[in-house]
Amino acid sequence: MLSRRQMLASAAALGATSGISPVFASSDFKLDQFIAELKELVSIDSKTGHEEGVNKIISIFEKRFRSIGWTVSLHPCPGRGNALVATSKPDQSKYDVVLCAHADTVQPVGYAQKYPFTLKGSIAHGAGVGDDKSSLLAVWWICKSLPKSVTDKLNVAVLINPGEETSNPATLKFFEEQGKKTPLALVYEPGRGEVKGGGFVKVRKGSTRLNIKFHGRAAHSGNNPQDGRNAIYAMALAIPQITAIQKKYPGATINGNVTKGGTAVNTIAAEAEVTFDFRFTNDATRDKVVAEVRAMCEKGFMDGVKSELVINRLGTALPETERSRKLMAVVDKAAAQIGQPKPQWLAVGGASDGNKLAAQGAAVVCAMGVVSGNLHDPEKEWTDLSTARPRIELSLKVLELLASKK
Fold first, then answer.
1. What is the CATH number of domain 4-204+318-404?
2. What is the pLDDT of residues 115-127, one digit of tens each?
3. Measured between alpha carbons, how far is 271 from 260 in angstroms, rounded to an integer?
4. Dihedral angle of Cα 370, 31, 22, 383, to the nearest 10 degrees
5. Are 83 and 162 contacting, i.e. CB atoms less than 8 angstroms apart?
6. Into which CATH architecture does domain 206-310 fall?
7. Please, which residues have CB within 8 angstroms of residue 30's CB and are 6 or more apart in sequence?
């Protein structure tokens, strides 16, 4: 664990390398305070579904946003915790731009203590430090630093999701309601650590689970196996046929990752099922693949075994659109005006809350947060705190440019 002296020494070292800020006054950004606040967040277990821990995170930000005069509302999402909406103006019926982050992590309960916050140079480690606690904290610093010239013109909304890592009906409904209220969204997933300087995201694949259940007929495998219809055999035939569909659609992937079937070694398996992880670059591809899989299941894969396709939810892709390109151009312009490198825009496989906001019509750019990496590895997850101030500054300039157009 870091002592106060160690935190101050790390902050001083980071401050010495970050140069003079073109956005913040010298007293506005206090890295030692940022580090202390991040350490507090990392010390709280907030795995998806651990409502007690997630709500502790939400409560911290509820108090902070109220302290600067923003309008705050909580939206219960049973099974995930409270979602938070904070707006710079009292009106929560419509927004000019949304800043979105999440309070949950993938790290199991107990990992906050097992993998505590540590800092060596500019690199911080700890459970959830990169995904998404450093970027969630950056959103707070952006909002509390906004000048009146911006908040007078823009109704800025912050959405904090209690269940980004694994959605449920309540969180999906929350985004259906909130996404319709804004034309623009900046999503604070971590900046992409695999790219030098940290990449930004313009496209995210959508994700849908294809669950196929096979219904055969049981029989004794010694006395009368001929009377049975083996559902596992049908599943084995189906997996390569369904996986092969991806060859028709560039960028699509279909992986059968979970299977189960049978009841006893001496009984012909009457039931089996496989769940595919299906990723796609656009919703048109999604619909075509689902239609093909459905038709294959209706035809069947083996005589005497019925196949049933079950889809609980159709995910959506985060596409690059004409409107999102205009928002990307604002980010590019903001970076140029404050002397930062030109953003590198990436297309990636994983989904985020940006997918949900785009599905409701918002133009979205993603990975606006603090540069991080190894996000699902509790021992190696990291965030580069030398990028916290530049990323905050970039968002402040983006919002300033958006306000100038009002």
1. 3.40.630.10
2. 999 999 999 999 9
3. 9
4. -20
5. yes
6. 2-Layer Sandwich (3.30)
7. 11
